[in-house]
What does this fold into?
Amino acid sequence: MTRPHRILRRVAALAVAAATVSSCAALSPDSLPKPHGDPDGYDVVLEFDSVLNLPDRARVVLDGVAVGVVTDVHLAETQVDVTSRIDAGVVIPSDVHAILQQPTVLGDIFVALQRAPESAPATPPLSPGATVPRERTTSPPQIEDTIASLANFVASGSIQRAQNTLIGLNNVAETSDVELGQLAAQVSTNLGDLAANLESADLVLTGLSDTAAVLSSKRGAMEHWFSPAGMLGFDRATQVTSRLSVMIPSIGSVYSGGFWLVPMLTTVGDAVGAVQGTKWAVEDELPRWRKLFTGYFLPQDKYPAINITSIVGPDGRELSDDVHDVLRILGAAP
It folds into this structure.
């Protein structure tokens, strides 16, 4: 073979290799065929407040089975309309609830259709072109917000404060068994006295109920008494009574002598004696209650905290395991 022919063969081989490489470089995931849903199916519009991170051609799942695909996402004035192509023969109830879910932390978001509880009455199926309103849809929580909240919780020292609170409670329980026993005995005595006098408490409550019923029946008259016209009438009646008590001798003698005050003063004296006895009882009990709150409860409430034991999502699933996985991925948990 002559030299020109060898040169032509090499040029042809280089041209074929260049064309092959350029064709491979032009190949991308966007050039691959995408599912457009069942051509014999029907469209359903789902209204969401937010569909952030919802991929193109996302799956539509009902009862754990893919029944359609998202074909269009349109931004409306107050919501986002997600058009889904549902396969032919799939019946979706009209009271279905749509949720944007994520199977794993790094998985793609898909549309999950959830049926109403079994106790709910049966509803007709969704017709082609029907719309599921925002009242029956749930947008996913942002993973960034969840991680930020967990970071703030861990970094704020809440766990350490909760541990210190438990240690303080254990110390109180170990060193104050006698005082706690005395307090429990006193509380038991007070509750026993209350139980022995429940009839008196019932009488008081019955009297208050009857008084409230009478006042309620006289509401119109009381509103008139405390109105500007009623207060003016009270003022005039007081002035007239004071003038008449001086003008009429009999009324004036009783008014000035004060004989009508004797029964009232006797009742007031008895009431003051009862209040005095109550005061002595309160003074006897007050130091114990003060020591209980200032010595035991208030120091422990200085740094309150909350232990999160369970996180339940809108669909009733337990999310605490997923949170542990997220913290482990971030290096915040072993």
Q: What stands out?
A: The beta strands are 42-48, 59-62, 65-75, 80-86, 97-101, 110-114, 131-132, 137-138. Residues 25-30 have pLDDT under 50 and may be disordered. DSSP finds ten helices and eight strands in the chain. The first helix runs from residue 3 to 25.
